[in-house]
Design goal:
This protein is of the alpha/beta class. The protein contains 11 helices and 13 strands. The structure holds 4'-deoxy-4'-aminopyridoxal-5'-phosphate. 4'-deoxy-4'-aminopyridoxal-5'-phosphate binds next to helix 4.
Length: 354
């Protein structure tokens, strides 16, 4: 062991889904949008010139914050933007989760919460989901240093109603409650209106899924001005320029084309409804999906077997070798053509395993 190693922060990093290096993969493993971003986004990116690269970006991210504030009918002082919602969530953890009581999040949930908590030395308690994978508001009424949950939840795709978020925000005025709405645009009702009533509620969203900009890295949080300025102060204490100017402009262009946004969302939700039927006919079942992915198990063939057989056919889905969910596959909704490839492959695999 090298002598300096005693002072290294020990971490167990988050493992993202695989980004294949080969071309012909049907990629249904990281909940990306299968459609391109709005046409105006490419135009905004093409406008890059030398000055853009030479200069620092706007540290206050004003253009994008204004666009988001207008779109969601909130004040500019109620919006925080970051490098994907991972950056926004990590900043929120650093800013708000400094108490001695454990922060609370579901046991089956976005795996990054535990990674951040471990990395930042934040005590945490995982709340067991019911057998039906539902979150129960009453579980989040106990001493805590903060609360975070995805809604819809990942990897289950289950949406809880706004009343669920309200119960938790109302019961915990002494802690910050983060509703991670990475997948809310796929048919869910956002808790955003509640931020006007609950000054401890922070809602985070992302451009990575519904706005097809995972590669650009844009996320945001909306909440009480005091929450936002606390996050800004923390961000400005480690990096004033998290967002590059091209990402800021791309984000504005994505927000401006609402018709395109709604059109692609409708396409994905149609494909999702079809996928539930088609997979059901093949013997798969799972919770009612409210995100851009399905969480399914097969009536007879183990998930890991299907996962590997799909991978051998260059179709990537996500498999988690974790207690309670190790017989499930998380399948991102692709284009209708990609989904046909999946159904055909599944038919073959199931035949081979009969
Ligand atoms: N929250 C949840 C629940 C997610 O699944 C993801 C995607 N990995 C994120 C946040 C972060 O997404 P991004 O950083 O791309 O905005």
């Amino acid at each position: 062991m090298k002598q300096w190693m005693k002072n290294v922060r020990e971490v167990e990093p988050y493992v993202p889904g695989e980004q294949p290096q080969v071309r012909d993969v049907t990629k249904l493993n990281t909940n990306e949008n299968p459609y391109p971003p709005a046409p105006g986004v490419l135009a905004a990116i093409s406008a890059v010139d030398e000055d853009r690269l030479r200069r620092y970006p706007d540290p206050d991210c004003r253009g994008l914050i204004r666009a988001l504030a207008d779109y969601y009918h909130v004040g500019e002082d109620q919006v925080f933007v970051g490098v994907g919602s991972d950056d926004v969530l990590a900043t929120a953890f650093m800013t708000f989760f400094n108490g001695n009581d454990p922060i609370l999040f579901p046991d089956i949930s976005y795996a990054f919460y535990e990674v951040w908590a471990e990395m930042m030395r934040i005590p945490f308690r995982k709340i067991l989901l019911g057998e039906d994978f539902r979150l129960k508001a009453e579980d989040y009424v106990q001493p805590n240093g903060g609360i975070v949950f995805p809604n819809p939840n990942a990897p289950t795709s289950i949406l809880e109603p706004v009343s669920f978020v309200e119960k938790i925000a109302a019961a915990n005025p002494g802690s910050v409650v983060i509703a991670d709405e990475a997948y809310i645009d796929f048919g869910g009702e956002s808790a955003l209106p509640l931020i006007q009533k609950y000054d401890n509620l922070l809602v985070t969203q992302t451009f990575s899924k519904s706005r097809a900009l995972a590669g650009m890295r844009i996320g945001f949080a909306i909440g009480d001005p005091a929450l936002i300025s606390a996050m800004m102060a923390v961000r400005n204490s480690y990096n004033s320029y998290t967002m590059n100017q091209t990402a800021l402009d791309a984000g504005i262009a994505a927000i401006e084309d609402d018709e395109y946004f709604r059109g692609r969302l409708a396409d994905i939700m149609d494909t999702r409804a079809d996928a539930v039927k088609r997979l059901g006919a093949l013997g798969f079942s799972g919770p009612d999906p409210m995100a851009n992915f399905l969480f399914v198990q097969h009536e007879s063939v183990p998930a890991v077997k299907i996962f590997e057989a799909l991978r051998a056919r260059h179709i990537y889905v996500r498999y988690f070798a974790k207690p309670r969910i190790d017989n499930y596959l998380r399948i991102t909704i692709g284009t209708p053509a990609q989904m046909e490839r999946l159904y055909t492959a599944l038919e073959e695999i199931l035949k081979e395993n009969r």
